[in-house]
Amino acid sequence: MRVYQLEIVVTSDGLARPHFKCGLCGKIVTDAREANLVWNSEHTDKAVVVCKRGCDKLMRLTGSNQWIPLNVAMLYLLTNSKVDLKATNREAAILASVG
Q: Are 11 and 17 in contact (CB under 8 A)?
């Protein structure tokens, strides 16, 4: 099982773009609404990102009985990390204009 599996994709212009990968099938998650963060209530330190292509149901069958949609989990993570969303949106707009 992969825990918080990230892949860093470096674009042709040299920018690093981190992506989540499904902890079961290994496919890159391209839409946070299409993945869940899944964990077992007894092991909250071992959450796994899984896609909704059946991997999330498989994880729940194997004892991972808690889950939250990845897009919602990311909002909680940003809030808990004290990320300034307005500043981040400005920086994202700058990065988007470059490539």
A: yes
H helix or E strand, kind and range, residue 81: none
Residue 80 structure tokens: 């808990």
pTM attached to this predicted model:
0.72
Rounded CA gap, 24 and 51, in Å? 8
Q: 3-state class of 66 per DSSP?
A: strand
Cβ(28)–Cβ(19) under 8 Å?
yes
pLDDT digits (tens, 9 = 90+) for 61-97: 777 778 889 999 988 888 888 988 888 888 888 877 8
Stated as kind and residue range, the H or E segment containing 35 is strand 35-40
Please give the DSSP secondary-structure letter assigned to residue 11: P
